[in-house]
Design brief:
Blueprint: E1 2-7, H1 14-26, E2 29-35, H2 37-43, H3 50-65, E3 70-74, E4 88-91, H4 96-108, E5 115-118, H5 132-136
Length: about 150
């Protein structure tokens, strides 16, 4: 089973970890697509350099799952999913539409569809999803805890 999982992974937060856990519950052949600096900076003003994000991801997987992972650089929203065959793609509700577009393109190209697995968000203390945007805005930490002072 070949599994695709992509993202910016900056910072590596509990939502990412849930996606990773799901991928490895299916199989060990997980290809991690990590967005290039250029692509990541279209969404976020600041982002850790690609090499640092990849190192953090590799270290996390090695420490928690015991093996090295395959990482490819994503330069566009499709990554390697139009060239390579994958059995599964692991996505959050936020990235589900992109997975559907990938399958539409694959159909046009005469390729087999990739089974899409949607993994629910991990929610923060306030019931809203943990996201890199919220973390970078200083609203929550990567575990979903409040970083803003409470008003009485």
């Amino acid at each position: 089973m070949k599994i695709a999982l992509g993202g910016t992974f900056d910072p590596l937060h509990e939502g990412h970890k849930r996606l990773i856990r799901k991928a490895f519950s299916i199989g060990k052949d997980v290809v991690f697509g990590v967005t290039s600096d250029e692509m990541a900076r279209k969404r976020f003003r600041t982002v850790l350099p690609y090499d640092v994000r990849v190192r953090n991801l590799r270290d996390y997987v090695k420490r928690n799952y015991g093996f090295n992972v395959s990482v490819v650089k994503i330069e566009d929203p499709y990554g390697r999913t139009l060239e390579e065959d994958f059995d599964y793609i692991i996505v959050s509700p936020e990235t589900y539409e992109m997975a559907r577009k990938i399958n539409e393109k694959r159909l046009e190209l005469g390729k087999k569809l990739i089974t899409i697995i949607v993994v629910d968000f991990v929610v923060a203390y306030d019931g809203k999803p943990i996201s890199a945007t919220r973390i970078k805005n200083g609203d929550i930490d990567r575990f979903g805890f409040n970083l803003k002072p409470q008003r009485s």
